[in-house]
Write a structure and sequence with these properties.
Pfam families: Thymidylate_kin. One of its GO terms (cellular component) is mitochondrion. It catalyses: CMP + ATP = CDP + ADP; dCMP + ATP = dCDP + ADP. This protein has about 425 residues and is α/β, with parallel strands linked by helices. About 35% of the residues lie in helices and about 20% in strands. It has 14 helices and 13 strands. The strands form 2 sheets. Strands 1-2-8-7-6-3-5-4 form an 8-stranded antiparallel β-barrel. A 5-stranded parallel β-sheet has the order 10-11-9-12-13, sandwiched between helices. The protein is elongated. It binds adenosine-5'-diphosphate and deoxycytidine diphosphate (YYY). Adenosine-5'-diphosphate binds next to helix 7, helix 11 and helix 14. The site of adenosine-5'-diphosphate (ADP) has 15 residues, from helix 7, helix 11 and helix 14.
Length: about 425
């Protein structure tokens, strides 16, 4: 863990995220103002971020939840996966205010080049030169082994100007993951209006956004549920949602709906390729469209829904909060609360199976894996965070169902729970 002792510094900190790694924070002290000597403190050296004999760089964009910033971050992320950066390790970087400071948060990347090739630095400069004002952070060791960050502004025709040279010192891990504060604006939308305004900002960039908005605007607002029960089935991929929802539909003569609804599926791929802000706003709008379908259907028959708001929120939280499960927002946090303007189901069941059984089922199904499914498999931490987020959802919460037994047994359990909660059908 990063050492204690720096938290009193009201200076911007960096949190470095690696896939599956803990949050690591370090502070860049102001020029000339070396607040403490990392060499003398016995603490882990921030220098460990610079691979010897290699080089290390950072770049950041504003983390404000705006469509242009989100798309710029995405473009940089894609560029850093290619060509000259192939041999580099690229970690996510969150720059956030230290306690008491008011700096606007930034999101970016730490690029570790084990070979320290001049080609990498040139390619980074090239990449940033086309992106307006973004400076490049270059890290270098001082004579006593201490670490410095040089911040370069890139000028036209190959020039660059040193904006700042500052010490890098170790900082304390913050009590809350720094991405938690921005979740409600950047990924987990709690009103139709919040999600709608993000998609609206995209209409000139993504032609499909207009079509989505048209559909949303055709739906009656504040849909009310009918008298028949509405049951949502949630869970990770391959936990048996399709199987269960189909059987419940047959057993109860229910109508089966899914979120995102069929009417937006032609645009799903487009939005899946967009950054979190836009992608999650799209799924949020899908829920409001489904809500109006649920309202109508539940006046005529029971309704069973394959995924709904809990999926949208749980996946968004798990992708935004890096590292371990303990980094998730604490229980009862506002991100786990149901949006006030979204139709509530009567019962939400969360299907869970062991990771081994889930992989067996995924393989058994033999379908092509989506990028996210591959990530789920590769990253069990991510899977744990999705599941834990589901379990923390409130008002309504998710009731867990062990979906490991046979299809028949799982269906019996599910029908029993529906009967218990929703009365005779
Ligand atoms: N109770 C069960 N026991 C064994 N296999 C199951 C069970 N439920 C579903 N499966 C199989 O597991 C795979 C994933 O199930 P599916 O219903 O498609 O999950 P999801 O909709 O959650 O992705 C399918 O091949 C399905 O036939
Ligand atoms: N209501 C929903 C449904 C899915 N999502 C997101 C969450 C994940 O990123 C994917 C998972 O979708 P899913 O596994 O159902 O995809 P398939 O229908 O199996 O192709 O979609 C969502 O945000 N909100």
């Amino acid at each position: 863990a990063p050492p204690a002792g720096c938290s009193a510094q009201a200076r911007p900190c960096f949190a470095v995220e690696g896939p599956g790694s803990d949050l690591v924070c370090f502070t860049v002290s102001g020029s000339g103002g070396a607040a403490r000597d990392p060499g003398g403190s016995g603490s882990p050296e921030p220098r460990c971020f610079v691979p010897a004999p290699g080089r290390c760089y950072s770049l950041c964009v504003p983390a404000a939840p705006s469509v242009p910033a989100a798309r710029l971050h995405r473009r940089l992320q894609q560029a850093l996966r290619q060509g000259p950066f192939g041999s580099c390790r690229v970690l996510g970087l969150l720059r956030y205010s230290a306690p008491g400071a008011q700096a606007a948060p930034e999101k970016g990347f730490l690029i570790q080049d084990p070979q320290g090739s001049p080609e990498t630095e040139r390619a980074l400069e090239e990449l940033l030169r086309g992106q307006g004002e973004l400076p490049l952070g270059v890290y270098e060791a001082g004579e006593r082994g201490e670490l410095w960050q040089c911040l370069w502004a890139l000028r036209g025709a190959g020039g660059r100007e040193l904006l700042r040279r500052a010490r890098v010192v170790a900082a304390e891990e913050p009590p809350l993951h720094p991405a938690v504060a921005g979740l409600r604006h950047a990924a987990v939308f709690h009103s139709l209006e919040a999600a709608r305004s993000v998609v609206e900002q995209c209409t000139s960039l993504i032609p499909e956004a207009t079509a989505v908005l048209d559909l949303v605007d055709k739906c009656p607002k504040h849909s009310k549920k009918g008298d028949f029960p509405v049951i949502v089935i949630e869970g990770l991929d391959a936990t048996g949602k399709t199987t269960v929802t189909q059987s419940v539909k047959d057993s109860l003569n229910a109508l089966l709906l899914r979120s995102p609804p069929a009417c937006v599926s032609p645009w799903r791929k487009t939005f899946d390729d967009e950054p979190t802000l836009i992608r999650r706003a799209f799924y949020a709008l899908g829920n409001y469209i489904v809500a109006s379908e649920i309202a109508k259907a539940s006046t005529e028959s029971p309704v069973v829904v394959d995924r709904y708001w809990h999926s949208t929120a749980a996946y968004a939280i798990a992708t935004e909060i890096s590292g371990k499960v303990q980094n998730l927002p604490p229980t009862h946090h506002e991100v786990y609360q149901w949006p006030e303007d979204l139709l509530k189901p009567d019962l939400v069941l969360l299907l869970t199976v062991s990771p081994e059984e889930r992989i067996r089922r995924l393989q058994g199904r033999g379908l092509e894996k989506t990028e996210e499914e591959t990530e789920l498999e590769a990253n069990s931490l991510f899977r744990q965070k999705v599941e834990e987020s589901y379990k923390r959802m409130e008002n309504p919460g998710c009731q867990e169902v062990d979906a490991s037994p046979s299809r028949e047994e799982v269906l019996m359990t599910v029908l029993h729970l529906i009967k218990k909660h929703c009365g005779s059908l």
